[in-house]
Amino acid sequence: MAKKVRIDSAGAREILKWASLGSLTVDVAQKIADSAEHTTSRGVEMPIEVYERDVTDRVGANVVIAHPAGMAVEAKYGILARAATDAGIEMKARAY
């Protein structure tokens, strides 16, 4: 029989505010950025950048292809998704 699990929301919120978790998050994001690379057929290298999220009180980082065609390149080739998987991040589809 399945057992019910109750998440301590206040505890989870507190963990997401830890400075050490923030540095770990940025380190993993940088690892993903370092392993992700893409050069177009015309020889243009796509810049991969890491931005530390500081909008909320929770830690986080975004890894982006900093190029006008970055979203299209990610959609077609999955550069960042592949790099994240290689870094040990489990990728799941997001329900909107």
How is this structure best described in words?
The chain has 96 residues and is of the alpha+beta class. The protein has one domain. Helices cover 42% and strands 10% of the residues. It has a two-stranded antiparallel sheet with strand order 1-2. Strand 1 and strand 2 form a beta hairpin. Helix 2 crosses helix 4. The protein is globular, with a radius of gyration of 17 Å.
Number of strands: 2
- Low-pLDDT segments: none
Shape verdict: globular
Oligomer: single chain
**Order of adjacent strands in the largest pleated sheet:** 1-2
Please state roughly what percent of the residues sit in beta strands, choosing from under 5%, 5-15%, 15-25%, 25-35%, 35-45% or over 45%: 5-15%
The portion of residues assigned to helices is: 40-55%
How far is it from the N-terminal to the C-terminal residue, by CA? 31 Å
Using only C-alpha atoms, the radius of gyration works out to: 17 Å
Please write the string of helix (H) and strand (E) elements.
Answer: HHEEHH
Number of helices: 4
Q: What would the average pLDDT be, to the nearest integer?
A: 84
Protein name: HK97 gp10 family phage protein
Organism: Herbiconiux moechotypicola
Question: Keywords for this structure?
Answer:
96 residues, alpha+beta, 4 helices, two-stranded antiparallel ribbon
Quick summary:
This is HK97 gp10 family phage protein. With 96 residues, this protein is of the alpha+beta class. Helix content is 42%, strand content 10%.
Layout of helices and strands, plus pairs?
Blueprint: H1 9-15, H2 19-35, E1 48-52, E2 61-65, H3 70-77, H4 79-86
Antiparallel strand pairs: 1-2
Helix pairs in contact: 2-4
Protein name: HK97 gp10 family phage protein
